Amino acid sequence: MPAAPVVQMGCLSPACFVLSSSVIKPWWESFQHHLGEGQCQNVDDGWKLADSMPSSAPALSLFPLWGSLLFLSACSSLIPQDFYSDSPGGFEINLDHRKLKTPQAKLFTVPSEALAIAVATEWDSQKDTIKFYTMHLTTLCNTALDNPTQRNKVQLIRAAVKFLETDTLCYRVEEPAALAELQKKEWDPIVAWAEKRYNVAIGSSTSIMGPNISASTRDTFISHLASYNMWALQGIEYVITQLKSLILSMGLIDRHITVEKAVLLSRLEEEYQIQRWGNVEWAHDYDLCELRARAAAGTLFVHLCSESSTVKHKLLQD
């Protein structure tokens, strides 16, 4: 009886973690390419494999579009094995049988097979021209390996926590009244969640000096971030930089909010102005999609560097 892989990724299941479709698309196209033409069908809730798939194909019935990268990152049968290989120092990426290297000429190795497959798929999705600006996972891996700023774990944590002093959600306006009310309605719930989740006091302020963040609040976040490894911390700082908010970043990484929601909240004032004055499609739309892509990639990077994944084989039943 042919065996098919059953993927287990702990809490990283498609049912509980939503990624931006702007990030998923290139991986999904590659996913379809490796399965073969005509083997994927679009349905109302996402995608499913065609009935003509051979019995040896991966066990997959109904699969949401936004979950494709998570499945791809855990199931090595969906990408050629020669794209990546196991090594004593981690997993290497191979391009035309040549080992990929970082900008500082270090051997490109990643700590988990799931991340290796995701990076390999990122390269595999490139067409005639290699567009490095679309390869956010590769960029994050290069940063983690080369550490161009030469910072240690303590410095990374303190840099991340320092964003709390200028967190977007902590700075409020007094006028126009409509925007002030919108900030209160949309931002207060996520701030309240963070205060309850981490047992801290954050607050907000309309002063240019911002709220007074206590030392105990800083220490709590420092202690929490210390539980992450160096690779994950690089991803966390990247997400914080994109969203301009430690609170939103932790809500996203903790799966309290989706990528789309986090980006919307980080752009609340801009969205308010767009609703009032109109949208410049070639500018605003691009910025929105790019921010979603970066935030989603950074969040996925954190999880792929923090979670362990296993592939178990289960016999298919007739």
Automatic annotation (TrEMBL):
What topology does the record note for this protein and the membrane? Peripheral membrane protein
User: What family name appears in the similarity comment?
Assistant: Belongs to the ATP12 family.
- What biological-process terms (Gene Ontology) are attached? mitochondrial proton-transporting ATP synthase complex assembly
Q: Which gene encodes it?
A: ATPAF2
* Upper taxonomic lineage: Eukaryota, Metazoa, Chordata, Craniata, Vertebrata
Print the keywords alphabetically: Chaperone, Membrane, Mitochondrion, Mitochondrion inner membrane, Transit peptide
Q: Which domain of life is it from?
A: Eukaryota
Q: What is this protein called?
A: ATP synthase mitochondrial F1 complex assembly factor 2
Assembly, in brief, is:
Interacts with ATP5F1B; involved in the assembly of the F1 component of the mitochondrial ATP synthase (ATPase). Interacts with FMC1.
Main subcellular localisation: mitochondrion
